[in-house]
Amino acid sequence: MIEDNKILVIDCQVAGVAGDMFLGALLDLGADVGKVTSAIKSLENPEFGYRGIKIEINQVMRGQFRATKIDIISDEPTKRHGDQLIEIVEKAVGKLELSEKAKRFASNTIRILVGAEADLHKANFSEAHLHEVALVDTAAEIVGSAVALDDLGLFDSKVYSTPVSVGGGLFRFSHGTVSSPAPATLAILASKNFPFQGGPMESELATPTGASLLVNLVDEVNRFYPLMIPLKVGYGAGNKDFAEVPGVLRLTMGKPLAGNDFLKDEIAVLETNLDDTTGEIIGYTFDRLLAEGAKDVSIIPMFTKKNRPGQILKVIADAKDVDNLSKVLIQETGTLGIRVNYCERHIISREVVTVELLVGEVKEMVNVKVAKDSKGEIIRIKPEFEDIKKIAGKTKKPLREIMDLATARALGVLKK
């Protein structure tokens, strides 16, 4: 049953995450098995080159936990290059009856996966050798996950994750012996500043496909679960079983407490008083704080001791960034102290969608910020100013007119 105002928590702090674990957990959560298997079987299309795809879905035990395990193999063992794999995934989801969010998710996931491998080997997409992720299971896990998430209505939910455990030690694969996390996994997590932790055992716990699914879905990473009412829990198993911990990925679907009209998160507020710092330094510090991950920076005029004019520099940040941002403040302003307050923040759901805007003969992509209330209703659409400014400059049309066109275009896309 699909619920409004859902929350999804991906708990990957025990045994990490892999593509098969994630898809198995979604099926355990209640995703339509028929839709998922049908979507995966659609990869047998002759233009994709896969033949004899076999799908096995079983209930297995990992420690004392029952979990769903999915295995996908093909009679066609040929591996695909990066550009081929991207084309397969994007064409496959394009032929399915999926939301635009689901299609974007699948496309973004495969592109960041292939991009990480290409960057590591200093190659372009067409030359990227994906080795372990080049067989049918990678495409199948991404396509299947997009279908399962769409079926559960989770693209309209707030998605949380715990920091992902990546394991540790050495392991062998096609590139030789490397340490965990694998180079591609580390590159993917680093590309989105996704927090991870080593352990709790010596093994590869987070795979490149699992990491790609995570970074393209999760809105917020916390060590602890948010305030929520749990509705259903799903467990997904991979190929590994451990004596120390259950080798499962846990997904919890829930909803906010009744009457709670806002999403909540925990933030840190950093403040420092400045009365002997030049405007140039404050401006540079402002920009650097944002570049280093601050959520917001503001400057408040004030008077300090001896009636000196000064400023309060206030920073809103994630708790994980407090130490680094404090260091930036001290380095750039010379302040002798920083006040740090941890507090709860009430927010509305936000996302960024990208739309194509055609004005005359000018065609550009525009990023649009979309805010929704607790019922998922759109309450505000705001195109990115710099994108609108660029189009207005090229077309010589009024900025307000381009803003209205982009807003209408985004609204049309969101209502599909």
In N-to-C order, the SSE pattern is EHHEEHHHEEEEHEHEEEEHEEHEEEEHH
**Terminal-residue CA separation:** 22 Å
Task: Kindly name the structural category.
Answer: alpha+beta
State the share of residues found in helices, binned by percent: 25-40%
Number of helices: 11
What does this structure look like?
This protein is α+β, with helices and mostly antiparallel strands and 416 residues long. It has 3 domains: 7-255, no CATH class; 263-347, Alpha-Beta Plaits; 349-414, Ubiquitin-like (UB roll). It has helices at residues 19-29, 33-41, 82-94, 100-120, 136-151, 183-191, 208-215, 279-291, 322-333, 385-395, 399-414; strands spanning 7-11, 54-62, 65-73, 158-161, 164-165, 170-173, 176-179, 196-197, 220-221, 229-237, 248-255, 263-274, 296-303, 309-317, 339-347, 349-359, 362-372, 378-383. α4 (100-120) packs across α7, α6 (183-191) runs parallel beside α7 and α8 runs antiparallel to α9 (322-333). The longest helix is centred in the N-terminal third of the chain and has 21 residues, at 100-120. The protein is globular and about 80 Å long. The protein starts with 6 loop residues before the first strand and ends with a helix.
